[in-house]
Amino acid sequence: MQVPADERSPEGMQYSLGCPFWSFADWRGSLYSRDARPADFLAQYARVFNTVEGNTTFWSVPSAQSVARWRDAVPDGFRFCLKLPREITHERMLVGTAAELTGFLRRVEPLGERLGPFLIQLPPAFGPDRLSDLTAFLDRLPTEFSWALECRHPSFYSEEELARRGDDLLVERGHNRCIMDTRALRAGDPNHPDVLAALHKKPDLPVREEPIGLSPLVRFVAHPDKAVNEPYLEEWATRIADWIGRGLQPYFFVHTPSNLHTPELARDLHRRIAKRVDVAGLPDFPGERGELATGQLPLL
Fold first, then answer.
1. pLDDT by residue, tens only, the chain of 300 residues
2. Residue 267 within any structural domain of the chain
3. Could you give the CA distance from residue 66 to residue 114 in angstroms, rounded to a whole number?
């Protein structure tokens, strides 16, 4: 289906906003039309949001056919922020991974200008004793791509000298900081059924909010209770507006434990940002309009 130009993902937003993934059937009737097939999800997603976290690439390298479908499903200006495969970051801890990294980049390179920063998510076990491995890995990264680093070892936050050295590695190479914020998740009822599992999976680390790089990347994990998220959304809206005013091009990804209402929460954040800085509005969700996968509205 050819999407009308005024209903494609918004241009001129000045920042990139999205969710952890697009393949989520429970978004039918809200973000997606109620009759959407899995093959329709990405195109409908990309009519509202202009970026997505590629968490699927952490678990497996996509086929060439999948990459081609992704490329053709989204408009110009859309960006995939793909996570490096776990074999590189978690299993081999960045060591001896030249062949795997090259193979992965060759596979996704057809996305071309639709590639946003690649996310290098390090496991909690990757500590200061491996700083030389991190340095060597960053030095080998192809400069034609953009990169964002997320560290999860507590020492990178609690030890000032180590934190400074980590920051210097990014600044010297022109890479971006990935900021993980789980404060809202931990601020509400910890016994909420949707929260229990997430508390064990998401890191409990300080938020180092100072951006590094042109495109700082934020991963915000919300609580199911909307009221709990209010002060954090306000804080991030102010900060993102400030970054835009400073000429940065940030990426912001919204997570929730079940992800059922993640699109609505992302839209809420965008409305708050729009009160502070001139950004384009988000299109209506296809499912909320009552639209069908054909692009038509049902007859009354």
1. 233 333 334 555 789 999 999 999 999 999 999 999 999 999 999 999 999 998 999 999 999 999 999 999 999 999 999 999 999 999 999 999 999 999 999 999 999 999 999 999 999 999 999 999 999 999 999 999 999 999 999 999 999 999 999 999 999 999 999 999 999 999 988 888 888 878 878 888 999 989 999 999 999 999 999 999 999 999 999 999 999 999 999 999 999 999 999 999 999 999 999 999 999 889 999 999 888 877 655 544
2. yes
3. 14
The answer to whether position 279 is within a domain reads no
Do residues 70 and 42 make contact, with C-beta atoms less than 8 angstroms apart?
yes
List the domain range (segments joined by +) for residue 18. Answer: 5-274
- 161: which 2 tokens? 């000298």
Structural domain count, the chain:
1
Cα separation, 252 vs 233, whole angstroms: 11
Element holding 52 (H helix, E strand): strand 51-54
Residue 284 forms part of a structural domain: no
This prediction's pTM:
0.92
Cα distance between residue 102 and residue 109, in whole Å: 10
195 Cβ contact list (under 8 Å, min separation 6): 185, 188, 189, 223, 224, 257
Sign of the dihedral through C-alpha 18, 238, 146, 281: positive
Using the structure block, give the residue that is written with the tokens 């919204």.
254
CATH no. for residue 122? Answer: 3.20.20.410
Per-residue DSSP letter, 146: -
DSSP state of 147: E
DSSP 99: H
